[in-house]
């Protein structure tokens, strides 16, 4: 029961995080006409901040009394999200540069699917596990 509620919450907040990522990306590329890579990075920053707080509070229900553990987990979360940013950029680059017939928005959707799976695994097993962070 706990696992299915956790996964349901992860999916809900993952969709909202992805929506934030996607809308910021669309705004930056289509309205402001920024480069797709720079826009991806800025969209990522907005999404990762939203994701940390929602994952901590609503998905994994991680409550740490120790401020040091909170800070360590935040930086660990950011570390794994930086890795997911690299995954996002790599998938976007491969699709846009090598599959020229695909639109950048299609590439962004595909990249986000890969990133969502990566982020769940790293959050569940490494960031919000019950173990103390060294």
UniProtKB/TrEMBL annotation:
Which GO cellular component does the record give, naming just one? Answer: plasma membrane
Give the GO biological process terms.
polysaccharide biosynthetic process
Q: Main localisation, per the record?
A: membrane
Membrane recorded as keyword: yes
Regions crossing the membrane = 7-28, 34-53, 74-99, 105-122
Q: Name one Pfam family in it.
A: GtrA_DPMS_TM
* Membrane topology value: Multi-pass membrane protein
Q: Which domain of life is it from?
A: Bacteria
Checking InterPro entries in the record gives: GtrA_CellWall_Glycosyl, GtrA_DPMS_TM
Keywords in alphabetical order, please.
Answer: Membrane, Transmembrane, Transmembrane helix
Can you say where in the cell this protein is located?
Membrane
Protein family per UniProt: Belongs to the GtrA family.
From the Swiss-Prot or TrEMBL record, give the protein name: Putative flippase GtrA (Transmembrane translocase of bactoprenol-linked glucose)
Which species is this UniProt entry from? Salinibacillus kushneri
Highest lineage ranks of the organism?
A: Bacteria, Bacillati, Bacillota, Bacilli, Bacillales
